[in-house]
Amino acid sequence: MEMDFFQELEQEKGIRLTSQQKAAVLHGEGHSLLLACPGSGKTTVMVVKTAYMIRERGIPPQNILTLTFSVAAAGDMRKRYGALFGGAEGPMPRFSTIHSFCYGIMMQECRRTGVLRQNIEGKNSFGYTKMQILTNIFEEVNKEKPTEDMVETLAGEISYIKNLLIPPERYKEHDFATANIQKIYMIYAAFKEKHQLYDFDDMLLLAYQLLKRDKGLLERQQRLHPYLQVDEAQDNSRVQNQIIRLLAGGPGNSLFMVADDDQTIYEWRGADPGAVLEFDKTYPSATLYRMEENFRSSREIVDLAGRFIEKNQKRHPKRIITKNPPVKPVGIHKVYNEVAQMKFVLEDLAGQKGPLEEKAVLYRNNLTAVLFAEALERQGIPFTIRGNKGHFFKHWVLEDIRNFLRFSLDFRDLSSFDGIYYKNGMFLSKAGYGKAKSHVDRKRDLFDALLLHGGLQEFQKNRLYGFRHDFRSLKEKPLDLAIVTIEEDLGYGKWAESGAKGRGMTREGVANILATLKFIGKRCRGIQEFLDRLDLLEAAMARAGVRDRAEGVVLSTVHSSKGLEFDHVYMVDLFNSVFPGAEALKAAAEGDSGRLEAERRLFYVAKTRARTDLHLLQVKNYNGKPVEPSLFLTEVEEVLSQGKRTAKKAKG
Predict the structure, then answer these.
(1) MF terms per GO, please (predicted)?
(2) Could you tell me if residue 318 is inside a domain?
């Protein structure tokens, strides 16, 4: 009967499973872990296994619950199952995200108690969003108005606390960037409880608490879903793993967990890889399966990726292989700077055949997306952006530069000068500036008003003449040099450096934003064209970031590329402090390799997005300063050299 199912699968559906895939499908009762390498067909196996359980083992569809990492993944499984098996196997089994499953449990409790909670991360009648609430609490506790980046950092840290179930007494063990995080968390939780609100992570937390304390509810869920399948389990957080453990704990229940510990890349937001690495300890009688054959990538890419990831120590032993033929060597390109890097990528893109949607640029830093978007838009090449939240155009540094430039066009533009009067070298007092403002009119600009009514000392007046000259000069200079004048002559650089510390930014971060603005400004003729260009680019990137499917070249953070694949992949900005990051390198030097292994996994995931054409680009200089080549690029070169030596010996 088993052969009948698989023969029919091959003859009618065109799906021929490998021996490793078939073993996973045939697994019967009891818990099991399937380690699935990139491109090994895990989604196909999960869909086929579901059909096999229903048809060959007689398991009712409603007793099978498949939990996935994302809405897209759940939809893809549902679509594939429907296309392959449709109504032939009876009712559709449930494919769901774990958040959707937990939402159902939470809503059951709401109906039981008569207390209806509102979601503050979507449309609601409460009137405030999660970010607005957190902004207000941050300001109340820390006595300062946070930037958008600071609020996003706070939201991420609160999510991290919930997903890892960190108790208050252990907050100090974590390097949280937000001051008074414990107090803010408690006020936020109390506010939500008072107004019967919940956020995205509360669905998990509330469901976990309900399942843990309500034995009857837990037993009903265990009886309803005795067969539990979990996809992308390496990305599950601790609270998600605890929920899964509760559901799988029923008498006779079976858990089929699919994961790849080498693709754990979300630890920064609470992923708990220990559940996969210690699966045999949690479920001592479990069976371990592997799917190691990659159907996606060329032999060169698979061989390189497999040997590269073996450098990590904390992993299940496995070896990714492929029967795909060799296509072309992996390209390693060492260029002078980020501009030369972009020029190389654009020229190579133009020379490659095939649709633009099969070409992707992968990066760590969202500023890289701005540079590529600027160049692509000017050349009329369509693009899609993944993982970019558009904060660049709302960043305080960008707004400050806008204000400097706007004021240089009109010395009566007080709304622009309001934002920068204390961010330059004039040393104006708030009172003196406020008094002078009231005397600005058609005949008298701000500089005249300051000289006459600003209460300035003689040395300040002398400085003011120089500043008026420097502001006037901005209109006459190329935009990149105008920004240099703002930094150096008008004193903004020193203020921004000190201001960055209180906003969770580094000096290098400010310098990189200014460098990006200089790059955009180089091709603009005049200040107004530059300001208009920023608006146009912001709109273009916003449109490129909301498309349901890719149109044109794909620009993506490495994290957002997970689950995707392309014919041509360009990994850029490969230098130390970016990839791998500075903190990972520092921790490794101090004997803690955990962060570096996490970064190496991310590099591995990026490489395995490519089907046939992979390019690794190292810049020798970034933002005008020499940089060290990426440690990972050095490791790649060592792997390739070793491969050449091995091949030479085999021939000899």
Answers:
(1) 3'-5' DNA helicase activity; ATP binding; DNA binding; hydrolase activity
(2) no
Domain of residue 626: give its range. Answer: 331-388+545-651
Same domain, 229 and 89: yes
Q: What is the DSSP letter of 354?
A: S
Q: Is the separation of the CB atoms in 67 and 255 below 8 Å?
A: no
167 is in an annotated binding site: no
Q: Is 478 annotated as a binding residue?
A: no
The reply, when asked if residue 264 is annotated as ligand binding, is: no
- 110 appears as a binding residue in the annotation: no
Residue 320 covered by a domain: no
How far apart are the C-alpha atoms of 169 and 171, rounded to whole Å?
6
581 annotated as belonging to a binding site for a ligand: no
41 is in an annotated binding site: yes
The response to whether 38 counts as a known ligand-binding position is yes
Q: How many independent structural domains does the chain possess?
A: 4
Record the pTM: 0.90
Smallest CA-to-CA distance from 244 within 232, 80, 71 is with 232
Which two tokens mark 308?
């590269």
**pLDDT for 381:** 92
β-sheet bridge partners, residue 613 = 568
CA distance 228 to 203: 19
> What percent of the chain shows pLDDT beyond 70?
96
What is the CATH classification number for the domain harbouring 569?
3.40.50.300
What is the CB neighbour count within 10 angstroms for residue 125?
Answer: 5
User: For the segment 263-288, what is each residue's pLDDT rounded down to a tens digit?
Assistant: 999 988 888 888 899 999 999 999 99
Token output for 556: 């993506």
Residues 61, 36: one domain? yes
Rounded to the nearest 10 degrees, the angle between the axes of helix 631-651 and helix 594-607 is 60
Alpha-carbon span 398 to 418, nearest angstrom = 15
Q: Are residues 516 and 633 in the same domain?
A: no
Say whether both 576 and 516 belong to one domain: no
Q: Does residue 355 have a cis peptide bond before it, meaning omega lies within 30 degrees of 0?
A: no
* 125 appears as a binding residue in the annotation: no
Cβ atoms < 10 Å from Cβ of 299: 16
For residue 600, give both structure tokens.
């190496």
